[in-house]
Amino acid sequence: MDNIYLTIYHDFVRRIESGRLRPNAKLPSENELAQLYETSRETVRKALHLLSQNGYIHKIKGKGSFVLPLPRFDFPVSGLVSFKELASKMKKPCLTKVHRLQQLEATPFLADQLQIKPGDPVWEAIRIREIGGEKIILDKDHFRADCIPPLTEAVCRDSIYEYLEHTMDRRISFAKKIITVDEPTEEDRELLDFQAYPMIAVVQNYVYLEDGTLFQYTESRHRPDKFRFVDFARRH
Length: 236
What we know:
CATH architecture of the largest domain: 3-Layer(aba) Sandwich
Number of strands: 10
Oligomer: single chain
Low-confidence stretches: none
């Protein structure tokens, strides 16, 4: 069949994008693929060439074809942007799902992070960020309830920052960020399309209003194969 090379191509695209074929994995030889798909080596070469052209594999003369790491999304370290603003720059469909939204009493840990008293009211919004059909970010947001109006699921699905700044006229000024690499939790594996990665990239955000009030503490948990954290620095 003339388009068998496309079948081979799409088979390997699915395996690579799903994580079944990891970066640096070696593909079967041309002879093995020809036997597997009951086609000619020339058809196999055509499929491998297309995979190479589109950045899925690279071919090393005398060694074979190897899977390349998939392109990662640039996540600005120094900027303070919402997911909605970040999503507008991506070329893949993005979706926010609200896993949990509730008002609760601050635990000693949350009280320490938000510089409030244990038992003070806090809004908790747990959101799953989906990019290109994959759930790859888990945002665990906590807001001082005395600093923001009541939240709704509709607001959380859209943009909390846009709601605060454009609707409620609350100005967000700056943030302190801490980036760590941690072991994934059961919650990470349950809520994200996590595959078998042994680590997760965690960005802790402490966000302040224009008057200097710390009003938000966030843990933003990212699947490690999908993001790279970038910054621009100038030597003074």
